[in-house]
Amino acid sequence: MSVLTALLITCLTFSGFAVAADNPNPKATVVKVNDKVITEKEVTDETNKRVAAQAQRMPEGMEISDWMRNRIRTSVVDMMVDQALVEQKLAEKKITIDDEKVNKQIEDIAKSQNLKMEDIEAEIARFGMTMDDLRGQVRRQLQIDALIDSEMKKEEITEEEIKTFYEENPQYFESPEQVRVAHVLILTQGKSDEEKAEAKKKIEEVLKKAKAGEDFAALAKEYSEDPGSKDNGGEYTFPRGQMVPEFEEVAFTLKEGQISDIVETQYGYHVIKKLEHLEAKKQTLDEVKDQIKDFLTRQKRNQFWQEYLKKMREGAKIEFSEAEEKLREEGNRPPVMPRPAPQG
After folding, report:
1. 8 A C-beta contact, residue 76 and residue 43
2. Tally of structural domains, the chain
3. Which one of 73, 159, 219, 336 has the lowest number of neighbouring Cβ atoms within 10 Å?
4. What is the pLDDT of residue 53?
5. What Cα–Cα distance (Å) separates residue 292 from each residue in 162, 283, 289, 316?
6. Which domain holds residue 252?
7. Are residues 277 and 240 in the same domain?
8. Which residues lie closer than 8 Å to 313 by C-beta, 6 or more apart?
9. What is the biggest distance separating any 2 CA atoms in the chain, rounded to whole angstroms?
10. 15 and 60 share one domain
11. Is residue 262 part of a domain?
12. pTM
């Protein structure tokens, strides 16, 4: 999972999804959090935006049920309650983040993913977000980080904790035997016999050029019809069990630097070059201790934050409107499934 995707998931989890109530009074109070009033308009605005994005990602023909609508609305109201509590605490602590820090954080995210700013805009649009939305979410996350720093007792992760995690989670540090190969694919799926014959001629031409020593990555970029690898010079790195058997057998059998003859699979004709054979290995504790320390630090901070939010809720005066209380009660009831009609 990319850093950007993880951030978006965090933002959407905090923002929630919701839908508008039928014929709402935009000025009606949905919930009061201490002295902060959250109106129907605020809930509706957030609702319409998030549901539109959710609908775009749903399979064609699927719709959100009334029960799911209630559950979704409840989640967005809960999110707004938490937001209000956080805003009040940030104001109390006088924690602010300037635009320069926000922009730098977004630039760092883009750089870590080798993305341009326009790439980020396209990515967040898939989640129904704009750059202003992202800046707001990044600013809030930086404020929360600063709040945690000011409230959480500093505890260093110990060497013993790192060692215990390493020993109890070997699956994170073991790599199976793998191969790194490049290939050129000429597709034959769904083609006529005449088209397959043309494909065979094309792959024979590629094989001839590869055997003559032409740059294999350049050949892949020019000829390959595999959209998943052609722009990367045809490269894949994989363990056993991930590719179709004919492709895998040749890839693991070749010697490093060796080029295969034509390999036929269900997808078409391939020419494969083996670039590297990677033996099964386990990273040592010294190699991963910094990563484990970072992970355990984030884990402790997340646990602290959840407990801190819970205490803020418990210490706050949160008053839902009568209509909202009823809606929340209905949303907690599972839908009644219709019984099948009797047979005979």
Report:
1. yes
2. 2
3. 336
4. 73
5. 6, 12, 5, 36
6. 174-281
7. yes
8. 81, 82, 85
9. 79
10. yes
11. yes
12. 0.65
Do 275 and 303 lie in one domain? The reply is no
CB 183 within 8 A of CB 272: yes
The structure tokens listed for 179 are: 């191969």
Work out the pLDDT band at 340, boundaries 50, 70, 90.
Answer: low
Q: Cα(60)–Cα(49) distance, rounded to whole angstroms?
A: 19
Residue 54 CA to residue 51 CA, distance in Å, equals 5
Helix axes 66-93 and 322-331, enclosed angle (nearest 10): 120
pLDDT per position as a tens digit, 134-149: 999 999 999 999 999 9
CA–CA gap between residue 150 and residue 152 (Å, rounded): 6
Q: What amino acid is encoded at 54 in this protein?
A: Q
**C-alpha distances in Å from residue 340, one per residue of 337, 343:** 9, 9
Using CB atoms within 10 A of its CB, is residue 46 exposed (0-12), middle (13-18) or buried (19+)?
Answer: buried
Percent of the chain with pLDDT strictly greater than 70? 89
Do residue 255 and residue 298 come from a single domain?
no
Distance CA 115, CA 109 (A): 8
- Do 199 and 98 share a structural domain? no
Residue that is last in its domain, among 242, 264, 281? 281
Considering the domain architecture, whether residues 149 and 298 belong to the same structural domain is answered as yes
Nearest-CA neighbor of 173 among 299, 286, 294, 302? 286
Give every CB contact of residue 35 below 8 A, 6+ residues apart in sequence: none
Same domain, 302 and 186: no
